[in-house]
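The protein record reproduced below.
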Amino acid sequence: MEDVTKLHDEAIETLRAHPGRVFVVGAVDSGKTTFARRLCLAAVESGQTVAFVDADLAQSTIGAPATVGLKIVTGPGDLEESAKPDAMSFVGTVSPRDNMLGLATGTAKLVMRAIELGARLTVIDTSGLIDGLAGQLLNLTEAELCRPHHVVGLARGGELDPIVGVLERFLSIDVLQLPAHPDVGMRSLDERAAHRERRLASFLGPEVFRWRVKPTVFMPMLPPIFDGADLEGLLVGIDNGHGDCLGLGILEYHEDALRLLTPVSEGVVALRLGSIRVTPDGKITERVDLRSMLGTD
């Protein structure tokens, strides 16, 4: 364990001395977030402007589940789960496979925002999707859009070899491969679900406003003939009309009218449809195929 800790410490010192955009990749429960947080705080201690981009849709610590979150880090408190994100990009699902385009573009969007805010070091905590074709496509696409200067791979065996091969072959990125720290525990499905539900509930309440919704405010657009009841319980992202996600909401359909339930009190201009139905206490009740539901290709 001491040797692994030393390797991680040395990697953090090297990255702190050569800042830029750092991708942290690895499977679920490989210690990505722990390493990313340690790197952020080490850079802050040396006086750097640091941004943390949280692209883990299901187990987010910055921003809401189903979104990518951004936080400018000035100290340990900015990395607590109670910290308010500086920006979010709505993806609409907690499974990266369900919306890889939204996840990749949302991550790139917030990396660009971090640069605009003056970040010298931007640490991107990736989703944990590394398996098969989907894992290769997602990680390559995100890297092509964000152009990281450094990639850190945390692995327990050879599970990252395909990702490393793709990044090195297509983008000539040197991947710093590290063993996952033995102190990192494996969480059960129930533990992961409880964390996700708690985070979702915190962004859906406790105070809730009800807004009457016009059928013309959605992305994707609703077809001319559409039953509003099909949107009951659907998670939506609240957009301010400038591409910024203000928060989350849930749609309800009652007495032939659509309403939005959300803690967002002002600035609601447009709504992005998600692909999961949720309850106010954060439980996901159903995954939704928007293309099938809306009758679009």
Helices lie at 2-17, 32-45, 100-116, 132-146, 161-171, 189-204, 290-294. The first helix runs from residue 2 to 17.
